[in-house]
Amino acid sequence: MKTKINTDYLSPDNERFYIEYFELLIRRLTNMSSSLNLENKDDTEFKLRLRNNMKAFEYLNELLFRNEKLSETAVITTANIVNNDSLYISKDYRKVGDHIIDSNVYISEPVAIQRDVLTLLSKYENEWNKMDPFEKEARFHIEFIRIHPFEDGNGRTSRLLLNFNLLKQLQAPVIITNDLIEYYHDYIRDNDVEGMTNLFRIQSTKENEIMKELYGKYNQSMDNNGKTL
Is a pLDDT exceeding 90 seen at residue 210? Predict the structure, then answer.
């Protein structure tokens, strides 16, 4: 299974391609969030979430192209952008709650959130730095969700961070499609790192094929008067 992306995809010479691809990626990620969270919400809320997800990933892209590590500041800033239009949601770390709603998964106590996030970031950069990239991302993703640092938007924030981390390692992004959502939640609930690792690897392989196809169309369009993807 090939997950390593062609470095040309992120080349400054192909800025138009990666801008258009990232817009498509975030739209698909937001559709995934819609199926999870927005079944009874109107189109206006979807558009707001799409706009905020776009802005959050633009922020992460700036870090990506500056080759910056994921930091506590980056995590908080991403979540604040994601939650920008959420009414009655406090910015920064969560100040209430001890379990995920509609779940028996217990999460970090508010007073422990900063400590737990910093510990997770340290493990990611130090203990896990030689680990298979998909196992590393699976561990980070599950632990992040189970810390649940923010009042809202933890899933959306975690999936943006997941794809930032993968692209930083030149691995294709991951989209959790509707047919896999139940498995995805089960892996989080059961702390199943192996299951999540396999899911991420398979979906990254599929996304690499999508990127390859889109890049081919992009090159063809450049030869045909610059049509868009």
Answer: yes
